[in-house]
From TrEMBL:
This is Rieske 2Fe-2S domain-containing protein. PANTHER family: CYTOCHROME B-C1 COMPLEX SUBUNIT RIESKE, MITOCHONDRIAL (PTHR10134). One of its GO terms (cellular component) is membrane. It holds the Pfam family Rieske. SUPFAM superfamilies: ISP domain. Residues 36-131 form the Rieske domain. Keywords: 2Fe-2S, Disulfide bond, Iron, Iron-sulfur, Metal-binding. GO terms for molecular function: 2 iron, 2 sulfur cluster binding; metal ion binding; monooxygenase activity; oxidoreductase activity, acting on paired donors, with incorporation or reduction of molecular oxygen. InterPro entries: Rieske_2Fe-2S, Rieske_2Fe-2S_sf, Rieske_Fe-S_prot, Rieske_Fe-S_prot_C. Its cofactor is [2Fe-2S] cluster. It comes from Cyanobacterium aponinum 0216. The keyword Iron applies.
Length: 134
């Protein structure tokens, strides 16, 4: 193999492997209304919540409230990135790191958080909990 061809192939391979993830994101993007499987309704009912930090749309926390309504949020505090926890008594999400507090709709109530928590659509089909971007 000639030297010039070798360098051309090496350069092409480098560029291809470097930009492959970018092309994948651009061409494989889902629409905003696509739902992602989060977990089973049985687990949600047993634990009172479902948490998945590895969904394609990001981390999602679904809470089953006492009135059987569902809340789905991105549980990463916007201050320092800690995972928020649901406090039933206060009806708030609270960050254990610096005590930022968020309403059910993700709005900051108090603390050092810099912005609201994103919320998600949630639906249940065939004993499975699904979430999607709002």
């Amino acid at each position: 193999m000639k030297r010039r061809r070798f360098f051309s192939l090496t350069l092409f391979s480098f560029i291809f492997t470097t930009f492959l993830p970018v092309f994948h994101k651009v061409f494989a993007q889902k629409t905003e209304n696509n739902f992602y499987k989060l977990g089973s309704l049985t687990d949600l009912e047993e634990n009172g919540f479902l948490l998945n930090e590895n969904l394609e749309i990001g981390a999602v926390l679904v809470i089953l409230k006492e009135d059987n309504s569902l809340i789905a949020i991105e549980p990463t505090c916007t201050h320092m990135g800690c995972l928020v926890e649901w406090n039933k008594q206060e009806n708030l999400f609270i960050c254990p790191c610096h005590n930022s507090k968020f309403q059910e709709d993700g709005k900051v109530v108090e603390g050092l958080a810099i912005s609201d928590l994103p919320i998600y659509q949630v639906k249940i089909e065939n004993n499975t909990v699904f979430v999607a971007n709002q």
